[in-house]
Amino acid sequence: AYVVYLGEHSHSSQLSPLEASKRATESHYELLGSSLMLLIKNSKEKVQDAIFYSYTHHINGFAAYLEVEEAMKVSGRACLRFSFRCCALREKVLFKHCFLFLWLEYPGVLSVIPNRGYTLHTTHSWEFLGLERDGRVPKHSLWRKARFGEDTIIANLDTGVWPEAQSFRDDDLGPIPSKWKGICQNDFDESFSCNRKLIGARYFNKAYEAVVGQLNDTFFSPRDYDGHGTHTLSTATGGAVPGANIFGYGNGTAKGGSPRARVAAYKVCWPPVNGSECFDADIVAAFDAAIEDGVDVISVSLGGDPADYFRDGLAIGSFHAVRKGITVVCSAGNSGPQLGTVSNLSPWMLTVGASTMNRQFPSSLIFDDKRVQVAFHHPPLLPLFSVHPYLIHIRFILISLFPFRSSST
């Protein structure tokens, strides 16, 4: 499968959203049909079956099942194969194939992207950042100035969400902001419900299905069966949950960076296949939907190998979001500290790296009635809100840096 990227839509203000979407879809059928006409018979029928996503709101493009030769044709480089017969020694007749490349121009096609795969990348974080102190929010805290993110709509592209999680209770929240235009997609999962905190949820699985084959009913729900999406979404905007801990460790009140914001989950990641959990065509579709739904911030904690901006679904989707005034925050990845291991470096993204903790969790083990204190090797402990000056760059502020290969963002 491939994503054909055509840039940005410029819908006429005189068209209804439904009519604009219909015209965009028809233009995608027309473009693909005209480009395949020379290669195959019955190209019209082929087009109807091939396109599985039409991006019709803000991002202009489509995703389709294409062979390599067809993708080259759409991108403007046609590969036509001819057979000819030549005589070799001893009068043996050999048949060879000759490939002739023709460069054809299809206006508006900026890139044709293979359906690339991506991988998924404490109760104390906000005190570490100086937003609260000893469980209380100081009068001059940035949290107070920002009203704890009240009524900001934060979207999360990940493995979905577990709606019953305590982080997404809607206690003390007012009506859903009127600018919200999204949905709670629970057609095949009646147990999934949204509220005034979790105001929307969608799933995008067509690109994943193109890779793994037909999916069963469990794949048609935004419910998070992995846990990663619920974790990242609650980190960004979960409400206060007192007494959060793991077997007594890290006990405290868990809350997100914007605890009074509204949240929307866009499920684009699924069980791993060949090392990848999320695919370009689904990611671009989710970005297009989130922009149209009226979100203010998009959070993305996934990444892949570096690619040119025009061939990177995350870069394309985030670019169109930023063009509409939406902040896109992405994880820097879990690799390192070698050079060139940071993910999501497009200049319009806000890329966030993991930090060193300023605490540890020592414990004891008992052997033959003797208590043994376990000593953990840990990175240097840092004072609260410490920033190394040499780590401050135009686009990155890393709270700390320690050469561990694995990290969580």
TrEMBL record:
PROSITE patterns: SUBTILASE (PS51892). Residues 2-76 form the Inhibitor I9 domain. CDD domains: Peptidases_S8_3 (cd04852). GO terms for biological process: proteolysis. The keyword Signal applies. InterPro entries: Peptidase_S8/S53_dom (IPR000209), Peptidase_S8/S53_dom_sf (IPR036852), Peptidases_S8_3 (IPR034197), S8pro/Inhibitor_I9 (IPR010259), S8pro/Inhibitor_I9_sf (IPR037045), SBT (IPR045051). This is Peptidase S8/S53 domain-containing protein. It comes from Ensete ventricosum.
